[in-house]
Amino acid sequence: MEQDLHTLLVPPNLRLSHRKIASGFAQLTADDWRKWTLGISQCLIRGRGLGASRVVHWMMFVDACRLIVKPTVTINEAEEAHMATPFSLFFYDNLQLFKEFGKSSVAEYGNTIATINMHLHCHLLDNIKDFGPIYAFWCFGFERYNGRIKKITTNNKDCFELTYMARFNQQVHRRDYVQRLPS
Question: Superkingdom of this entry's organism (predicted)?
Fold first, then answer.
């Protein structure tokens, strides 16, 4: 699959930052997982001998993610991802998409496939209603800050935390400082 990935022409917004997937996707960031799920996997999953039911199973997950993994999402889209869509109604009986994905994963692959994230999928609708689009509260922003943390130069002595917080506050409040300057 990795060889096929290297030959695949994808738009810039779907390019993975790390193109190594043979190691069990260990190098992928949250944004890479979004790109893989919503774009690349759909091209690479077919014709791999997985069987029609497994492809349909994956596409059900992709369909639900497509509705909510974006900067803005309507309540109708969140509810559609939470409940069955016309595509999934053909294969399933009006069940919640994410819940059905978790249940059918266990049925297809065994209990070891079930993770806490699969359970949390069932609560995404409530979280979106409480906190807004998942872009507002998932780990993309956290990963960006991890990249910034690596770039902070320190004096290699104690109190990295103080150095980090000072730099963090400077960056966060930079606009405030500029706006306070006399015009």
Answer: Eukaryota
Tell me the pTM.
0.62
Q: Which amino acid is at 68?
A: I
Which domain, by its residues, includes 128? 2-136
Which residue has 């559609």 as its token pair? Answer: 80
Rounded CA-CA distance 99/122 in Å is 6
Measured in degrees and rounded to the nearest 5, phi and psi for residue 128 equal -65, -40
The 3-state DSSP class for residue 47 equals coil
Q: Report if residue 146 sits inside a domain.
A: no
Interatomic CA distance for residues 18 and 152, integer angstroms: 23
pLDDT per residue as tens digits for the range 40-93: 888 888 777 778 888 887 888 888 888 888 888 888 888 887 775 544 444 444
Question: How far is CA 152 from each of CA 75, 139, 145, rounded to the nearest angstrom?
Answer: 40, 20, 11
